[in-house]
Amino acid sequence: MSARPLTDTRIVLRSLQARPLSTWITIGMVATSVGLLLVLLGMRSSARDAFDRGSGNTHLLVSSDPSPLVAVLNGIFYANAPANPIPWAKYQQIRGSFPWLWAIPTQQGDSYRGYPTMATSTEFLTKFEPVAGQPWKLREGRLFERPFEIVLGAAAAKGSGLRLGQEVFLTHGSGGSREGGDDHAGHVHTEYPFKVVGVLEPSGSAHDRALFIDLESSWILHAFDRREREGQHGKVGAADLTDADRLITGILLRLPTRPGSDASAAMQQQFDALRRDTSIVVAQPAQQIQRLFAIVSNVDGLFIGMAVVVLVSSALSTMLALYNSMAARARQVAVLRVLGASQGRIFGMVVTESLLIGFAGAAAGVVLALVGGIAASAWLRASIGLVVDPALDPRDTVIVLGGAVALSALAGLLPAWRAYHLPVAESLRPAA
Amino acid sequence: MAEPALDIRDLRFSHRGGGFALHVPAYRLGAGEQALLAGGSGRGKSTLLQLVAGLRDVDAGSIEVAGIRMSALAGAARDRARGQRIGMIFQTFNLLQGFSALENVMAALMFGDSPAASHAARAQELLGSLGIPDPSAPVDRLSVGQQQRVAVARALAAKPALVLADEPTASLDPENAVAAMDLIQDACRANGAALLCTSHDPAMRARFTRIDTVDAFAAKVAA
Questions:
Q1: Mean predicted confidence (pLDDT) in A309-317
Q2: Residue A100 pLDDT exceeds 60
Q3: pLDDT in tens, A146-191
Q4: What distance in Å separates residue A367's CA from the closest CA in chain B?
Q5: What is the CATH number of the domain that holds B95?
Q6: What's the whole-number mean pLDDT along residues A301-328?
Q7: Going by C-beta distance under 8 Å and a sequence separation of 6 or more, which residues neighbour residue A270?
Q8: How far does the CA of residue B79 sit from the closest CA of chain A (Å)?
Q9: What are phi and psi of A202, to 5 degrees?
Q10: Which residue in the set A6, A345, A430 is minimally distant from B106, CB to CB?
Q11: Taking the CA atoms of chain B, what radius of gyration do you get in angstroms?
Q12: Chain A: nearest CA to B68, how far in angstroms?
């Protein structure tokens, strides 16, 4: 207790100290709700970010999936292995139909310990950029150059523990029953060892979970299965492949663009042209992701709504705690009035008290959100390889903090009103 | 000649919802003068002090404290005038719990005009002259006698023209009551403040040369 002059703020702080339990609980409630809101908002923008990563500089995605949205979910986010194949002839026909900048065939469906394979051409790793403007980078080794070589996505490398030079056997099918009651579903191809020749840097997209191989090795595995079914045993080589083996599940397309622009004048025309072919489905990934996000944002809107309710209820409990403390503080308020404090000044003190709870809670909430965000991002990175930026969006943060402080000010109004109208003479009577 | 510390003219007041009513045709207290307001409890002694302090509104008439017509002021202006011109002492002291003796006295200065930097010195000087050894001690840890001193110091901190003491000895034993009244009366004299003290204790009469009874101000309650 120093000899500094007494000020309104010191009186307010002393009031908060006088009932520590209530003060800390209300600050804790505000902090929890602010932290929750910030984490949810951060996760929403991270989710949006994660959805934006993966299709990269692809203009169009062709597949035989039931719908464009499913095509994007399977082809870009590896939701399921695409069930319906596209014949190689169809790929050649589409590639020849227009002077594409590139047309990359992809074939999904096999896996290694739950990590999906992506059989494709080397263009997938040289021309296709998983995030527009950020081409693939090799962390070590090289790209695949011949059949039965594997390049690992960063998360697949980390999760599987595979190292450069190691040999692995792929599983036909993704561990589930891709081909119904087929005996060969989930069958491990011990006949064909693959060798790890390269590991990629993380791209922050779902592709990081994939193992990249060339199309021919995938076709050979499938040809082997086909021949087993037909009763022909023994090794299969590239020469044994038939058109029935040369199947793909998707095509990534990019049209020529003007320098400095990502858009192509021919886009709509080519999109419509491909759509006329009923044997395939064509998707503009960006558009489908937009649709997908519209669906997802309904769900996270619900979560955010709940967090807002928590924030409002924390403001209500601040109000209740303050309001109830007014009865115990009536004498103090009355004494200050006797000493010359105006009603307005008393009102201001109570609102200040409520504001201080709001500020302290908001500040603690930001710390909670940062710590929680870092922990969540470390967990996501370690468990599923998803790269989520733990940073808080400045705009969201300002809105949430402003809202929390404004709500605290509102919460102070009713108790302040009670203090404003306190009957001074009655409150000074000796206690019974 | 100095203006009177208190000048009441034709004051009328009645409690809403019944009870007693007051009518004070004229009441003056000179600068530095000390008077006892006697009368049984429930007759309106405290109410009259509250009217003077502007804690209640008069129905009619005027109250001037050191030349300022309190009854004509409202709101913040009246609160401010009270803080600067009137000190109040209560039976139960009404100290700010959780604050030090020094802070309690400084609280009387924070709503006035004196520069904040001077508050601590003024409070320390008063507490020193009233014999509080440790001004930084929380008031809840002081003895009853020391709390009384802090209450007196607080009432005089803003250099008021008038101190209103409402039953200041009612909760004290006779021995302590004598000491308390010595303290209050001496401190008011030393600080140039007039004193209007209420008490229902007949022993108090010997201490004052001027004694008024509140019964003289009793008015008929309007039907």
A1: 91
A2: yes
A3: 999 999 999 899 889 999 999 999 887 655 433 333 444 567 888 8
A4: 31
A5: 3.40.50.300
A6: 88
A7: A60, A98, A253, A255
A8: 5
A9: -60, 145
A10: A6
A11: 17
A12: 15
Residue A384 is predicted with a pLDDT of 55
Give dist(CA A265, CA B14) in Å, integer: 90
Q: Determine contact, residues B130/B186, Cβ cutoff 8 Å.
A: no
| CB atoms A340 and B111 under 8 Å | yes
For the purposes of burial, counting CB atoms within 10 Å of the CB of A391, is it exposed (0-12), middle (13-18) or buried (19 or more)? middle
Longest dimension (CA), chain A: 106
Burial class (CB in 10 A: 0-12, 13-18, 19+), A251: buried
Which residue range is the domain that position B85 belongs to?
A: 31-57+74-213
**Alpha helices, DSSP H, located in A53-178:** 68-77, 88-96, 123-126, 154-160
Output the six-digit token pair for A183.
Answer: 């005996």
pTM of the model as a whole = 0.74
Q: A345 vs A201, A231, A332, B54, B75, CA distance in Å?
A: 62, 95, 14, 17, 11
* B4 in any annotated domain: no
Residue among B150, B115, B87, B100 nearest A340 (CA): B87
Query: Bigger pLDDT: A26 or B2?
Result: A26
B71 at A interface, C-beta within 8 A: no
Confidence of residue A359 (pLDDT cuts 50, 70, 90): very high
Site of tokens 């596209």: A86
Task: Please provide the DSSP assignment of A188-231 as one string.
Answer: EEEEEEEEEEEEEPP-SSGGGG-EEEEHHHHHHHHHHHHHHHTT
Backbone angles phi, psi at A19, to 5 degrees: -130, 75
| Single-letter amino acid, residue A78 | Y
**Site of tokens 């394979």:** A117
Q: Above 0.90 for ipTM, yes or no?
A: yes
Q: Give residue A430's identity as a one-letter amino acid code.
A: P
Q: Is B17 on the interface with A (CB under 8 A)?
A: no
The token pair at B215 is 């019964």
Domains in chain B, number: 1
